[in-house]
Amino acid sequence: MGRVGPMGRLARAGPALGSAALTGVVRLWRVPRWRGRTGADRDPAAPARWEVVTVDRPPEQVLPDGRWPEPLRRLDGAVEVRVRAAPGDRGTELAARPMAGATPPTGLAAHLVGDDPHLLVRRTLRQVKQRVEAGEVLRADRSALDRPEVRG
Amino acid sequence: MRALCWVAADELAVREVPDPELRNERDVIVRVRRSATCGGDLPLLAGRDPLLRAGDVLGAEFLGEVVEVGPGVRRHRTGDRVVVGASVACGGCWYCRQGLHSCCDNAHADPASVDPDWGRSDAGCFGRPRAAGGFAGGHAEYVRVPYADVGAFRVPDAVDDDRALFAADAAPTGWLAAELGAVRPGDVVAIWGAGAVGQLTARAAVLHGAARVLVVDRHEDRLRMAERHSGAEPLDYRRTDVAAELRDRSGGRGPDVCVVAVGAPPPDRFGGRSVDRPDASREAVHACRKGGVVVVLGATDGFVDAFPLGAVTDRRLTLRGARRPDLRDVPMLLDRMARDELRTEHLATHRLPLEHGPQGYELFRDRADGCVRAVFTP
């Protein structure tokens, strides 16, 4: 994905979430990891790429009252966010990228998100999109392996 | 409950698996009455998809009765007899709102994990690996159906199960092919592949007013079936110079619309995208009239060698493709089935209990005993 062009930045008016709830979840990365996914021939000092999704709703529905929607709000302090209306009346372009200076994940959080913070950012943006467009975040089926009694 | 599961390469088994449960508010649970094999299952059956796991339940096409309804469901209630579209789609994203349900943005449980593959994920699908955005399939006693208001359709009383089952995928795919080809009255339409999708493409072309519809295959029984039920002219490519015949039967112009409905080979043994041998696609491109439309259907995942791109540009062809149909046409197709304009039950050449699922897939894979589709009853 190419770098997202100039976007009108909305006020980062996310709620002041309790720091205890965010510890180990929000402050996920140290600076070198933020530079990841840039390719071997890229400047290692270049800022992290934006991850972006287009949500097929106007900005006021994506960010009611200018506040970050869940679950993006949980990343307050760890990502920066940009928003603009998509061209052609296609809704809202919602972009986020890891903020320089965040600390790496530890413990269970590290186990869950691995060493690529962009995956968590993308997953979060996708969940925002699903919540706004579909009304819910789709859950996978349970595994069919729980009781594998072969019959035939 | 019992379900037909993939176990290993070319090995299926009916297993006892956990009952499905409502996982989202817009889910319903369907008790399956019929399910059908489809061509997209064959690469999975071959066991070369690295995302497939032992125990995954197959079956993209099914019909049944609603037995449980999530609190967010508006259009369905318990007892409804429904056919379920093979694509899982949210109904609320930009693609769904354009009617492009097979491109839905919100039908993967973890889309971020599959995005890098092609850059963007397509819709979810029943009977496909969970890691690829799939959901447990319909070869089972019960199935969970996400976004049920979008993907499940009440079946008119006048349409029996054996006919309505094909409204899940094969009939809408055939209709989509005719739409993508922009078939108009008087057109000559050529179709490669006389399986269920090819035959229903032929029927859709007739219903769009095509003057001549020609179907190319090598299986005599399928060609005869296409002739009898779809009004198509059969061309056996083992005995006919297809290109010359198509020129002859289109006044030297070439068909206005060419549809490739032959399916695709499975991924290579390392699980990667195979290099397809696009014999049918190549023939279609060369046969199509100047300015005509070539439609390629099916799970053609691979890269293609020796594709005649020059013929596409020289002759101003339009090349269009689709892997799965959209959901928008299903109600209309059910209405046509109710009016007897669209008959599909003949495609169910083999009706078997679910316990015989492995044998049914063997018949289907090998096209043995005249098998076009095997249909299972739990």
Notes on the protein architecture:
The complex is a heterodimer of chains A (152) and B (378). Chain A is of the alpha+beta class and 152 residues long. Chain A has one domain. Chain A is 24% helix and 14% strand. Chain A contains 5 helices and 4 strands, in the order ααβαββααβ. In chain A, a hairpin with a 6-residue loop joins β2 and β3. The longest helix of chain A has 18 residues, at 117-134. Residues 1-39 and 146-152 of chain A have low confidence and may be disordered. Chain B is α/β, with parallel strands linked by helices and 378 residues long. Chain B has 13 helices and 20 strands. Chain B has helices spanning 41-45, 94-97, 111-118, 148-151, 161-164, 170-180, 196-207, 220-230, 242-248, 279-287, 309-314, 330-338, 357-366, and strands at residues 2-8, 11-16, 28-36, 61-69, 81-84, 87-88, 124-126, 134-135, 142-145, 152-154, 188-192, 212-217, 233-236, 257-260, 275-276, 293-297, 303-304, 318-322, 348-353, 373-377. The chains are: A alpha+beta (152), B alpha/beta (378). Chain A binds chain B through residues 54, 56, 90-91, 119, 122-123, 126, 129-130, 133-152, and chain B through 2-3, 5, 7, 13-18, 20-21, 23-26, 53-57, 72, 90-94, 97, 105-113, 115, 124, 130, 135-136, 144, 146-147, 355, 357-358. β4 of chain A pairs antiparallel with β2 of chain B, so a sheet runs across the interface.
